[in-house]
Amino acid sequence: MKEHRSIRQMAVGEKACIARISAEGELGRRIRDMGLVPGAEVEIVGRAPLNDPVALRLKGFTLSLRNNEADYLFVAKRNGDQA
Amino acid sequence: MSQTQHRAAAESAAPLHDQGLRLHTVALAGNPNAGKSTLFNALTGARAHVGNYPGITVEKKVGRVRAGDTVLEVVDLPGAYSLTAYSAEELVARDFLVEERPAAVVDVLNAGALERNLYLTVQFMELGIPLVLGLNMMDEARRNGVHVDVKRLSAILGCPVTELVARTGEGVHELSLAAAQTAREAKGQWKPLEISYGPDLDPAITEMTARILAKSFLKERYPARWIALKYIENDSQIMELGRAADPELAAWLEARVLQVATHLRATLGTYPEAVVADYRYGYIASVLKGVLKRDDLGDRVEFSDRIDLLLTHKVMGPVLMFAVIYLIYQLTFTVGKVPMDWLEAGFGLLSETVNDALPDGMLRSLLVDGVIAGVGGVMGFVPLVMIIFLLIAFLEDSGYMARIAYMLDRVFRIFGLHGCSVMPFIISGGIAGGCALPGVMASRTLRSPKERIATILTAPFMTCGAKLPVFILLAGVFFPDHAAQAMFGMTMLGWAMALCVSWMLRSTVVRGESTPFVMELPPYRLPTLRGLAIHTWERTWQYIKKAGTVILAVSVVVWAAMTFPGLPEDKENVFEARKAEISERIAALEAAEAAQPEAKEAAEAKPDAPAAEARAEEADKADAQTAEAPKAEGEEPAKAEGELETLQAQLEDIEKEQAAAALEASLAGRLGLALEPVSRWAGFDWRTNIALVGGFAAKEIIVSTLGTAYSLGAVEAEEADPLAEKLTQAGIPLAAGLALMVFILLYSPCFPTVVAIGKETGSWKWAVFSMTFNTVFAFVLAVAIFQVGTLLFP
Predict the structure, then answer these.
(1) How far apart (Å, rounded) are the C-alpha atoms in residues B402 and B197?
(2) Higher pLDDT residue, B788 or B216?
(3) Contact in structure between B74 and B40 (CB atoms under 8 Å)
(4) Residue B81 has what DSSP assignment?
(5) B172 pLDDT above the threshold of 80
(6) Residue B301: closest CA among chain A residues belongs to which residue?
(7) Residue in chain B lying closest to A62 (CA)
(8) What pLDDT, in 10s, does the model give residues B74-92?
(9) Full-model pTM
(10) B55 annotated ligand-binding residue
């Protein structure tokens, strides 16, 4: 299985493609309704003053989610990333 | 309310028909932040009716627009991201569509975020309802390098597509014509779209659809394939309906879904709902191929993002947030003061006019002390309420409110609340001067019922506009040198208590997981004046309605409780006798004064006339003694006037004494006395008790009741100085004053708010809970403060 890391671990200003979503139930539905699906490109545009929630940019709009919700969203590990 | 509106619409359809006009109901739907309400306002303007959906608190707006030879009755559905019910709003949108079957749906999309917005559109198409698309905010999209081939999109989807800029009205008329045409041509026929959900789901969906068709399962409401899809999507509402309609088939369908789910998990490591969403987005991507083009603007930071760099900055963000909140406070009070004074003067004049026009008696008392004082007290705050709502509407419409929620979510979560709880708190008086009634209503934006209940129950702890005059008065009495600090302290205490109590509630009676904070941060936009005006007016109107209905009724009840049964006859006679005696002396003096010209002459001739001397003796002795001999000549008539004043003051004092005695004898007074043994623990005497009981009706009543109880006659909140003196003279200890302020801050919400709590939570249990819990909580705290305070400052 390919190595993935969660959105929580991404830095502000970083861009990546969503590879996998492990959320189910209500949260999973909510995430998908908002357009966070595998293949979508996201960019971290900011973090709230207490580092949580996190703001994402997704095709034409901005979304916020909490870190513990971002944990369910995985992006592919970039080439050249140190483990 | 909405049902009556519907009936009214049906009734008025006949005259429309006579004019050769047709009436069609059209639903306005779309994602939140897609500009739906701007379009609704542009279409229908101020002619819209606002109400609630029957039995639910979600707002319902209905308005009419003429489009050619058709009149469209436009129903503004609540914003939704999906038709698979997640929030109460989304459920309402779906139920309206299947139950009311509008002639067409106008789907408003944000052209700049077309992909996400089309997710809802695809679901409308799967339902089969006649559809018209309005691509809103085209100006913004074009600026951001987004190009949409509208003709091609319309051809692929098979429905009219209009480009819109709802803010300026561009394309609005074309859209209404397209909606009218679609509604006419569809003739109520629904044509569901069928899209493929891949090799794993398609066979199952086909199989399920066949069974559903064979048994006419829920047929009159939903298309068969759509039901099958909802089962796949694990939609709890549809599954429940299914179980009730045909348990056998429902069980089979559920088993079939489970089978697919197991297969998917084993082979692909995913589950049906996710596959459905992926295929829908796949379908959207294929539709948009050749339709949507984005100029590569490189790493150009959008305008909104640039503002966010500052407004949600780690340090500057919170600083600016507090500055904004402080500014709202300042603006509200400095600007609001002027019209508030006018209104109060107006009510004062009205009160005087009625007072003069009517003879002394019950009716006058009812109108002046009950109706005008009660309603006027609430109406006086209308300018403040209006300004605060205008500013809040500005924050909401501009997109900043979402940032406040974003910045505060982490803090609020500690207390079991949601970032979105900020709004209800602020409206309720988090910035002193709000009103808990619209605050409780504003909690509708919260999705989780648990967080919502916690917010609704704690929002009334804030320093609402009605508590303000009471605090201004009490702070002036007990903290004469630190009144402003005391006021600020009260506001902070309101916040602290709201957060602590909500934490208590969330870890006991309303326990449960927190809801996801997957929330859109809409781009910053300059709100339209029209939108601001409409939003402000809608909320202000709710407040005025409260004054006109509940407060009016309760004011009358409170007036009655404070008037009846009145003084026993013997006591009444004693007062009347004393009044009669003084009145006689006044009459005698006035008669003498009428003859003053001669008396004056006489006084000039003989400075020590015996008559004048006798009068002087009767008057204040000290006065007579300090009068210097050389000036005595001119002082003689002045002394007579002074005496007249003294007598009139005495008469007034007796009247006040009588009023206070009558109050003591009244129902409210007896209640106050009966409560005294308990309230003593917190340092409240029976007079305070009456005011507090009256304050349950509306906190505005507290000041005027204190005035009557401390025998001052009617007291206006703004002219509280003599009351403050009286309270100071009454020698109420500091500890009791502080206990009183805390009690007023926290005890039972006013009656209109309690009613709102009952309606908003959908259960009277919570209304009763907030009344009893808050009062007990406030009392315990007040007792603690009084007891400890008495020990510390004996």
Answers:
(1) 35
(2) B788
(3) yes
(4) S
(5) yes
(6) A45
(7) B521
(8) 999 988 898 886 677 788 8
(9) 0.78
(10) yes
Tell me how far apart the alpha carbons of residues B55 and B226 are, in angstroms, rounded to a whole number.
26
Contacts A52 to B, Cβ<8 Å: 409-410
Q: Is B234 annotated as a binding residue?
A: no
CA distance B400 to B397: 8
Q: Is the pLDDT of residue B553 over 70?
A: yes
Q: Which amino acid is at B562?
A: M
Amino acid B472 reads I
Single-letter amino acid, residue B269:
G
Token pair 């919502």: residue: B452
- ipTM at complex level: 0.91
- The predicted-structure confidence for B449-504, as pLDDT tens digits, reads as follows 889 999 999 999 999 888 887 888 888 888 888 877 888 889 899 999 999 999 99
Count the residues in chain A.
83
Q: Could you give all domains of chain A from N- to C-terminal order, each with its CATH number?
A: 4-77 (2.30.30.90)
Q: What is the pLDDT of residue B376?
A: 77
Binary contact (A69, B305; C-beta < 8 A): no
- Structural domains of chain B in order of their starting residue, each with its CATH number: 3-186 (3.40.50.300), 202-294 (1.10.287), 569-658 (no CATH), 667-792 (no CATH)
Enclosing H/E stretch for B65: strand B59-67
A68 touches chain B (CB under 8 A): no
**Chain centroid to CA B300:** 41
Pick from B642, B636, B605: nearest CA to B620: B642
Pairing of strands B22-30, B161-163: unpaired
| Residue owning tokens 């039901």 | B227
Show the beta-strand stretches assigned E in B450-549. 519-520
Cβ <8 Å between B406 and A50: no
Asked if B116 is an interface residue toward chain A (Cβ–Cβ < 8 A), one would say: yes
pLDDT for residue A81 is more than 60? no
According to DSSP, residue B434 is labeled: B
Neighbour tally for B491: CB within 10 Å: 21
User: With contact defined as beta carbons under 8 Å apart, do B762 and B715 qualify?
Assistant: no
Contact A48 B523 (CB under 8 A): no
At residue B412, the pLDDT reads 93
